[in-house]
Amino acid sequence: MNSLTTSTGAFDLTRYPADPRDQLRAWDAADEYLLRHLAEGPEPSGTVVVLGDRWGALVTALAAHRPVQISDSYLGRQATTANLRRNTAEPDAVQLLTTQDPPPERIDTLLVRVPKSLALLEDQLHRLAPAIHPGTVVIGTGMVTEIHTSTLQLFERLIGPTRTSLAAKKARLIFCTPDPALARTPSPWPRSYALPTDIGVVSGRTVTNHAGIFCAERLDIGTRFLLRHLPRRSGPELVADLGCGNGVVGTAAALANPEAELLFVDESHQAVASAEATFRANLPATAKATFRAGDGLTGTPARSLDLVLNNPPFHSHQATTDATAWRMFTGARDALRPGGELWVVGNRHLGYHVKLRRLFGNCELVASDPKFVVLRSVRR
User: How many CB atoms lie within 10 A of CB 29?
Assistant: First the structure.
């Protein structure tokens, strides 16, 4: 937990899941810069929309204005909920929407925390533009390393004339003036592409990618390696594609074993939508699958899964960390039945085999190349 001090008070904020050993803050200089600017000028008015608020720092500080938060992150939404309950008298004053929900019909103040993904920014500005009017105040914020010429060009092309502030503590603001003469065009997302022809049962199949998911333009090499070494299984079983992304791994498992029931889980709402579109496009209507935005396998009944397939991320925004992988592995161990298996692909240097041996008491090297390993652990 840490304290964000603003002109309206101090707010104790935490990321989610909260970990007392975690030294990562739930806000940064870009959030501070935006809040300071708002405090020095006219207060936000009308319908206030906050896009991309990572851990709820902005909407918590602005809760008195009853803002709408739009976020792709399930974990970010959980953090927002916790921070609002801890710091405000009316935690329900903030409306929480996902990037897949219909946006408000009118936006009077739009505050944008620039996302890491330019594609996600493009998609969301397309979706929000029809609700913006000539009087809408549009302000973006981000660290200097996050704001590029391409970022400013997107605001200029989709909203209107754009300029930036001076940098402060390595953060910068973006000021955009809505241009009602700009043509409003639909978002180019989601996009689809055909898979390579050398990766087993999904060779040549089509995958769908919503904006912002990992490797949305092509199949990432780690997933490609895992697809070449998937287990061959048959019969009724419950299989989880954990951290599913566009769902290609779970779709491959379903194609290889038509009797399997799939569970697709990701913390990104964009990823879950992508996985469902990929699965539906490649499996018959009778195929069974559940699609869930969540915190890994939290909430999955203990000892219920037969197989978990996982390509864990090792970044959380700008931080490199193994905390997400560790939580995924722990959740998989708890959710697997005795004899159930966890299959993981990862970079060789990450040393996942050490963690898996600690958790499961065993770890088998299934396949390796100079960059990746596929590992298998069995729940005893």
Answer: 18
HSE value, Cβ hemisphere, 13 Å, CA-based, for 318:
14
* Token reading at 43: 């207060």
Residue 336: inside a domain, yes or no? Answer: yes
Contact in structure between 330 and 359 (CB atoms under 8 Å): yes
Residue 318 has pLDDT above 50, yes or no: no
pTM of the predicted model as reported, rounded to 2 decimal places: 0.95
pLDDT (tens digit per residue) in 207-255 = 999 999 988 888 999 999 999 999 999 999 999 999 999 999 999 999 9
Could you tell me if 71 and 80 are in contact, meaning their C-beta atoms sit under 8 angstroms apart?
yes
Query: Which structure tokens are listed for 210?
Result: 């919503």
Cis peptide leading into residue 190 (ω within 30°): yes
The domain spanning residue 301 has which CATH number? 3.40.50.150
The residue range of the domain holding 239 is 191-378
| Rg of the chain over all Cα atoms, to the nearest angstrom | 22
